[in-house]
Amino acid sequence: MCGIFGCILKDEAAAPVIHAALKRLEYRGYDSVGEATIDDGKLYVKKDQGKIDEVHMVRNLDDLPGSLGVGHTRWATHGAPLEVNAHPHLDCSGQIAVVHNGIIENFAELRLELENHGHVFKSKTDTEIIPHLIEEILKNNSSFSLAEAVLEAVKKLQGSYSIAVISSKEPDKIVCARNESPLVVGVNDEAVYFASDIPAFLPLTNKALMVDDGELVTLSLGHVEIRKIADSQLVVREPKIIEWTPEMAIKQGYPHFMIKEIHEQPDCLRNTLRVQEHYADLMSTFLDRARDVYLVACGTSYHACLASSYMFSKLAFLPSYPIIASEFVEQCGKSVNIDSTILAVSQSGETADTLASVNSARQRAATILGLTNTIGSTLTRVSRVYIGQQSGPEIGVAATKTFTSQLSVMAQLALRLAKKRGKVSQDEMDFLAEKLKKIPDTVEEIIQKQEQKIKMIAKKYKDSKTFFFLGRGISTATAYEGRLKLMEIAYVPAIAFPAGESKHGPISLIEPGFPVVFICPKDETHKTLIGNIMEMKARGASIIAVIEEDDEEIKKLVDDYIEVPNGIPEVLSPVPFVVPLQLLAYYMAIERGYNPDKPRNLAKSVTVK
Ligand code: F6R
């Protein structure tokens, strides 16, 4: 996730306005920043790695000349957060500048093609192919306007993008296009703006035009032209008045970042399906060769590791050991050696215990692999291979969207490994790959259909003193994560166990009315799990079950149920099944009068440069 913004102003200088707007978009990314403006037929650019304030201190982002320009605040996906990879990116002639939010999947092929035509690339980004592609199209079609060239260029792009393009040859226009990444236009009598999100221009105008997927927008002072990319047809759209306060706008109308991020999961999961093939392949090769695989992490990321150990075993027949990072050195330190592989999972890439485990394993010559949301973090620097999960910054302290994205990446890795090892038939692979692609829609459906019901369940159980979470098989990880979310933001003491273990002690806690949450995918554990539900019911527990829609058997047994769509394969089930538990924790916190964005005694790890 990155933030883009640009403007055409009547009399004012654009650069300070872009700078201020990028500050308002910093929640979308903050590892590098850049601006480009046009003045007197010349293109000017400033960009660097670092937070906006840091870059401004050194380079002064406000003194670029001209009243038209674009800006970008980056959260790296392709290429480390370095000056050369910061946006805007330029063509060979230095006349065209592009800012981009999204992921171009076919950039490697396009880059090769363009290099064969003599284009020279400076960065490792997917974005840089766009200005070169536009340059190439203009070279071959001398009568084309910038808008026509951008239209042709975006037809060649696969993946997600919102882009903005300026050219010193058409110094009064900005051309934007959108596919699966957000883009809005703001207008008033004095100016026209575009941005990834409304908060960027809300202090300047409250009149906004939403741009849809598959649309190309040409901005000039006093004029906004929208066309369909597919057939160039003109689209007529009136601006809407936005009634949000700036505070509401940053959370896009949601009361808290946590609920905003829960709702962002379908889009994040779509992004996560675009992890870079090359790195995923490389990582699965390392996993394939390893003698021991340790999956090391803390908190929510550890739960992703736990779920992944089931995925690796069930799909690729790879045994792996999920280990809590703070225990790793004590528990496994001496067994690690040159044949060991550590896959460290950390949203921030900076969690001290995870890094300590990695350091200890490095000293024993183990191979370090990393999965993180923060490119440029310490974990990316110490890993032999790392994958960026591409969830965008997570502002809520409680991990939600980064957890489901971690699960999706791990499932993709397990599938690759299974293919490499020939452990899963092609039909089964195709079936799972297809289901994985549908997971974002499944999550969207769950949020849409179940949120109100979960709110009511939270109201009903808000005064419960303790909760129990139970699951079997891979759903044990889901149960652990549901418990952690409820404890950390709603302050309800909760316990979680593999359901089979509950009778070896924990069941003694049960008394009438004790809430027990069961995670019940219809997998191989379903039948046994029903036995566990009966045991709890017989002792008077109040059962809340997360079930598949057609699970009539469990519906009859339980007090409350939350439904997810049918037919989710076992190895993918933690993604949809955890979403109701995130919502339950969120609404329990609200019912109990707590701010879910500010859990006491907790803070997020950040990269320290
Ligand atoms: C829980 C939560 C924490 C983190 C843990 C690891 O909601 O956010 O448990 O999962 O602190 O953080 P990372 O993944 O950054 O290493």
Describe the structure.
By secondary structure, the protein is α/β, with parallel strands linked by helices. The protein has an eight-stranded antiparallel beta sheet, covered by helices on one side. Strands 5-6-7-8-12-13-14 form a seven-stranded antiparallel beta sheet. α9 (277-289) packs across α14 (401-421) and α16 runs parallel beside α19. The chain is globular and about 80 Å long. Bound molecules: fructose -6-phosphate (F6R). Residues 298-301, 346-348, 351, 354, 398-399, 484, 488, 605 line the site of fructose -6-phosphate. Fructose -6-phosphate binds next to α10 and α16.
What is the rounded distance between the termini?
A: 20 Å
Note the total helix count: 19
Structural class of the secondary structure composition? Answer: alpha/beta
What are the bound molecules?
fructose -6-phosphate
Shape: globular
Overall number of strands: 25
Q: How much beta, percentage-wise?
A: 15-25%
Spans where pLDDT lies below 50 across 5 or more residues: none
Sequence of strands across the biggest β-sheet = 3-2-4-1-10-9-11-15
Q: Main β-sheet: number of strands, strand sense, barrel status?
A: 8 strands, antiparallel
